[in-house]
Amino acid sequence: MESVVRSQSSVGPDTAAPKDATLIYRQSRWTRLTHWLWAISLFFMLLSGLQIFNARPQLYIGKESGFAYNNTIFAIGAENTANGPRGYTEIFGKRFDTTGVLGWSGPAGRETSRAFPSWATIPSYYDLGTARVVHFFFAWILTTTLVVWLVASLINGHLRRDLAPRIDDLRRLPRDIADHARLKFHHRREYNTLQKMAYGGVMFVLLPLMIITGLAMSPSMNAVLPFLNDLLGGRQTARTIHFIVMLLLVAFFIIHIVMIFAAGPINELRSIITGWYRTDPPAAHGSKTPQRSA
Amino acid sequence: MAKFEIGPKLQISRRKFLTSASLGVSGIMLSGCDAFDSQLGVGDGLRSFLEGANGLTWRAQRLLAGDSLAPEFTEADIRQPQRPNGVTAPDDDVYKGLLANNFADWRLEVSGLVEKPLSLTREQLMNMPSRTQITRHDCVEGWSCIAKWTGTPLSLVLDQAVVKPQARYVMFHCLDTIDRSLSGDIKYYGSIDLFDARHPQTILAYGLNGKPLPVENGAPLRVRVERQIGYKMPKYLRKIELVDGFATIGGGRGGYWEDNGYDWYGGI
């Protein structure tokens, strides 16, 4: 455990050697700042994105949207039935009744036809123009923050020390999965294998894919990078991927929140707000786990 | 950053901070997304601040895109008629009169900041050099449609009218009523800057998929601005006006949809 505490001294100037050895400085100010900027950006991008989707609640595969032919793989809509209007969601031609949430929703007696419900969109009423304003503003924030984080993490060693996969991670994976399944958490300085996979997946796969598919939908960017849509399978496929990655990011967010509550919300929140994280007392696991040097 | 001691005092303030932070987040979640509605109307402070990003996008894409061409497709990619959108059958008497006569009396007026104002017939436009391009139309709603467009490059018309140096934008005035207000019918209007106006793919289209432009797609003449979204390509053209700003036109934001909250630059 000693080595863990000593290794922190290289992190930054605000690393005061704490009297309590289990309290370590885990997250640099760059990680914390960018984390919260992403949290805010992704919140607004999700809700404005769902509003944008509502303008055309269908997803297609290919270069264009089929009107005289069918290349729709996903659709949300409303239809009149004998029991009044119903909302539906159609996935690969299979239709599900989603009245109340998708397709047909709103306060009792004042339901309207809208793909995603009012509570899930910004603005709450239908306004594509405003949603685009909000979406593109936060797209700039998100992308800039990602670049700042990448540079900072290369310099301060966050990438190399915390996120870079190691052979050891692979060896620990089965035990990690078993531990997570039993909601048994170790509080160490290092991320466990599943954490590395989740964070690495978001930072290096999902967010870049989100930006790339977002750019692929821009007609001006198509002139700059014409190969992008060829690579992705066409603008409408890019739009579909953009939507699917959104679902994956939402799934990550839910798991992220559940894990924070399972692992101890005060300690986890403290580390991403102040940087300080309370690790398990050395007796709990110290001798069994080889410590890594930074 | 100052070093700090982990003491009881800090513990309390940290706890307070955590509590208020989580209360704040859950407050936003609970109140739903109408929490932001009141700050997002056109002209509101927050809205105007967020709109600043559109200027950034415009400059960044200008820098990157230069005069590069929008992707063009092949005949095999044309798999359906061009989907019409917005006004598809103008109900205006003037328009219906022109249509009844197959647009023989229609003229494209070119005015404003030009040395030689023009009044062009459809035949005059069709006798000028033309450009045909198979491009993808991207609607702001999210759908796309590939079609073949034929028309006169706008730059040729601008050259013929000789644009004055102080002109910055091309304003399009249309024949179709898009909206009604207390002060009367609002005909569709929109604008692009001279850079996009002079782009080789920016054409005044009179042909679609090898046939004359149909009414639902903007007959007799519509604009194609291939590196922007559909609402930047007005249909049923009547007049092209060269201006140095659009503060006095409509709501002052450069177009009908812009006056209703859409970004002026539609490259994204």
UniProtKB/TrEMBL annotation, chain A:
**The keyword Cell inner membrane belongs to this UniProt entry's keyword annotation:** no
List the GO cellular component terms: plasma membrane
Molecular function GO labels:
electron transfer activity; heme binding
Membrane spanning residue stretches = 36-53, 133-155, 197-221, 241-263
Q: Which InterPro entries match?
A: Cyt_b561_bac/Ni-Hgenase, Di-haem_cyt_TM, Hydrogenase_cytochrome
Compartments, record wording: Cell membrane
Q: Which residues form a coiled coil?
A: none
Could you list this entry's UniProt keywords, alphabetically sorted. Cell membrane, Membrane, Transmembrane, Transmembrane helix
User: Which is a GO BP term held by this UniProt record?
Assistant: respiratory electron transport chain
Q: Mostly located where?
A: membrane
Q: Where is the Cytochrome b561 bacterial/Ni-hydrogenase domain?
A: 176-275
Q: How does it sit in the membrane?
A: Multi-pass membrane protein
Q: Name one Pfam family in it.
A: Ni_hydr_CYTB
The question of whether Transmembrane is a record keyword is answered with yes
Descriptive protein name: Cytochrome b561 bacterial/Ni-hydrogenase domain-containing protein
From TrEMBL, chain B:
- Give the originating organism: Mesorhizobium wenxiniae
Which InterPro entries does the protein's record reference? OxRdtase_Mopterin-bd_dom (IPR000572), OxRdtase_Mopterin-bd_sf (IPR036374)
State which residue ranges cross the membrane.
Answer: none
The superkingdom listed in its UniProt entry is Bacteria
Residue span(s) of domain Oxidoreductase molybdopterin-binding: 103-244
Q: Record's CDD domains? A: bact_SO_family_Moco
* Name of the featured protein: Molybdopterin oxidoreductase
PANTHER family, per the entry: BLL0505 PROTEIN, PROTEIN-METHIONINE-SULFOXIDE REDUCTASE
